[in-house]
Amino acid sequence: MSFRNYHTILYFAFFSILIASCNKEYFTVGAELYNPEFEDLNSVVFPVYSYQESMSKVQTNNLPNAHLGKYNDNFYGRIESSFVSQLDVSFINIFGDFSQEQEIKGSDTDIRVINEEEVLSAVYLDIPFFNNTNDADTDGVIDLYDVDPNDSSSDSDGDGISDIDELRAELNPLSNDSDGDGILDPEDDDNAGYDNRKQVYEIDSIYGNRKASFDLKVYELTYYLNSFDVQNNFETYAMYFSDQDFYADGFSGHVLHDENISLNLEEVPVLYYQDDPETTVIETDEIEYYASPRIRVPLNVEFFQRRVMNFEGLDQLKNADNFNHHLRGIIVNADNFSDDLYMLLDISNTQIILEYNYNYYNSQGTATLDDDVIERRKKSSAIPLGGVSVNNFSYQDSNQEVQRVIASSSEGLPSNKIFLQGSKLASKIKLFAENEFDLDYVISDLASQDIIINEANLIFNIDQSAHDYSHDLLPNRIYLYSYDNGQTIEDYNKDFTIDYRVGNVNTNKYIFGGLLEYDSDNIPERYKFNITNHVNNIINKDSLNIDLGLVVNSDIEDITLRRAFSNPKNTEMLMPTSVITSPYSVVLHGSHPRDSVNISKRLLLEVLYTKY
């Protein structure tokens, strides 16, 4: 007797025993399920089959975040990421105060139009971190640091002055000595040394050691990233994939930055560019505003003077396509990490800042020419990253068990474990039965008993032996969808629940589920999906029992799809964008545990039904 047939017999014997039992109590997460219309609520566990999937590459152009860093997982091995991007010059109209055409022609009516001779003084690459400043009670203290996030009268720094009163008095509600002069706020009548414009941020999406140092390298990209697919006669958008390493493939030009850095998670002070002659204060020494925390590094000034500033008024800067043929973009890479550090960065707000000096005709506000002077002034322009961007992911597997399960699943054998890791590892799930003959038997047997499906839950238990719970890449949510076409299932579509709690991220559609659940000791335990509509359609409406895909998820609302290719068969498929933007990983118990110890933790589908 084959291994597969043996398991089928066991499952149907188990199913027969369970379907005959009545009036079982059933408890959902922490609460008893009760419907007064049905006094005889039954539950039955059905067989589920899991298969491991591995991706050789996924489509990563124009993702909402940029991955950068290196992370060594004790179970999965190492992941390294970098990215490339074009630049968007559509926001640059002129440098200085007048266009190059005006500078060349001059003006018969405006004496101020002169040759401005713009010269760069500094160039910076600004890559903001993702952060939040959620403040539920609007008292000036973000919820992360607020002693009571729902009470503006709370006193987070314990100095006897409420948070809201300190905000109104322009004091620091997180310090009992706002200006640091040694005199506590309640007794200090002069806190002018404190700058109340400064904010405190909760920095998101940085994993590993935030104090680690690393070499940040920025290069000129010499490969032209075409927006449209050359192979399809430019009729569709081009696709770029995670295995494309433009630096390793030799498409790097000039070195724009190469230094060892550490992250600065504080705000970035930005000084005034001009001094106001009407005041005694030297404004160029004063802070104009604070930029949110970010990676901010200097770039090669000579390169940008030669390739950007000197082309003012020429065709190369007239539109994005011209410019992207002229300067094709940048490569951002990182290596030589002192410790694990992996970052998801805000690429949509990343930009290159050009600071330059130029000639300014100063008439001194008078009608005479005697006191007019030409002076050098400072200004800045910003070039956002835009057009095409591509993330590169490099995975180095160190766990042989993962490779073994991938190999056995490719031969059609159900898996004892499920490995989910970012866009690299996913799972395929079959409900009820492994083949169509058995499926027909299960469905017809259940449907013939005249039952109503009250609830159907698909439960994935975490393999605790594979996880250290200080592991900060454990996903707070996983996602279930149609494996064949990437589409959502009906339970997703019919769930309109919204989590209005401030600060909760990726927690809408909580009836559909997939959220991380904890046991009584607050240890991550399992993920559960409510697929009642999906199961009811199969049992009572003759819907197809489609294969389901299972992946980690970073945004339950994002149902856009990307191309992916499986390994080792190189089969093309569609995957949700929300998994490709996520670096998270988890090990779950599969459908076919190898030992009796894990039988109770196996993947299962529990159906609550009522006979009528």
Structure, described:
This protein has helices at 3-20, 100-105, 163-168, 301-307, 320-326, 400-410, 436-447, 490-493, 532-540, 577-580; strands spanning 27-28, 31-32, 42-46, 48-58, 66-73, 77-87, 119-128, 131-132, 202-203, 206-208, 213-221, 252-262, 268-271, 287-291, 294-298, 330-335, 341-345, 351-362, 373-397, 417-421, 425-431, 451-461, 478-482, 513-518, 524-530, 548-552, 561-567, 572-576, 585-589, 604-611. Strands 5, 6, 7, 10, 11, 12, 15, 16, 17, 18 and 19 form an eleven-stranded antiparallel sheet that branches. The longest helix is centred in the N-terminal third of the chain and has 18 residues, at 3-20. The two termini are 39 Å apart. The protein has 612 residues and is of the alpha+beta class.
